[in-house]
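From the methods appendix. Each design record in this collection lists the tokenized structure first, followed by the designed amino acid sequence. Records were kept in a plain field format so they could be parsed without special tools. The example shown here is representative of the layout used throughout.

RECORD:
FOLD TOKENS (205 positions):
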């Protein structure tokens, strides 16, 4: 059994979505952490990466993916590329992924790691994640992998398609995952879920 498969087994229970667990079992997490931290790559904890950012705790990543209820045909925006691990998992669960990162160095590293796995349905954008990526909107799902402050940025909600789902860590100083659903009529519904801790979403300026 690979270390990734063993990690997926440990997450079964808190996470029940078998597609999410299969994705976690398929992606070698050690490729997304600095060389000096690879012995801890499969620990259920956040780990530091370059530019003062982190790769999130595996359980939190899995819960976010589960809340998004992804379909194979979905178009997904991933805000806060970081290491690229989240985007790699999204690539196995959806048709197309656009991942945006403020730090060009991290975006390049993530592109190299994901490309090395033969994944071809992820596009990398360097920019302000709070503004999303309107050029390819609307999205069936939006994953925000950094603390959004006291509310989800309005630009991101507007890029969510009818029937779409968005998940983000929201709140100051205490953070919780917030699930946003846009109904077929355009109405938005929000619900609070798990308590979490993320680094802030980097803004321009």
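DESIGN:
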């Amino acid at each position: 059994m690979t270390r990734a498969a063993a990690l997926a087994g440990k997450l079964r229970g808190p996470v029940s979505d078998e597609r999410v667990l299969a994705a976690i079992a398929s992606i070698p997490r050690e490729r997304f952490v600095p060389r000096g931290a690879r012995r801890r790559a499969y620990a259920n904890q956040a780990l530091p990466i370059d530019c003062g950012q982190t790769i999130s705790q595996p359980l939190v990543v899995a819960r976010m993916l589960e809340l998004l209820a992804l379909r194979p045909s979905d178009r997904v925006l991933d805000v806060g590329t970081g290491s690229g691990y989240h985007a790699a998992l999204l690539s196995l669960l959806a048709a197309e992924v656009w991942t945006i990162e403020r730090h060009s160095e991290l975006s390049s590293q993530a592109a190299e790691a994901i490309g090395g796995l033969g994944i071809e349905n992820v596009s990398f954008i360097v920019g302000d994640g709070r503004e999303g990526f309107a050029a390819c909107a609307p999205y069936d799902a939006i994953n925000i992998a950094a603390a959004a402050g006291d509310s989800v940025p309005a630009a991101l909600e507007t890029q969510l398609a009818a029937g779409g789902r968005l998940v983000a860590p929201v709140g100051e100083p205490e953070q919780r995952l917030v699930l946003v659903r846009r109904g077929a009529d355009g109405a938005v519904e929000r619900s609070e879920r798990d308590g979490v801790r993320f680094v802030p979403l980097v803004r321009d300026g």
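APPENDIX NOTE: The chain has a mean pLDDT of 92.
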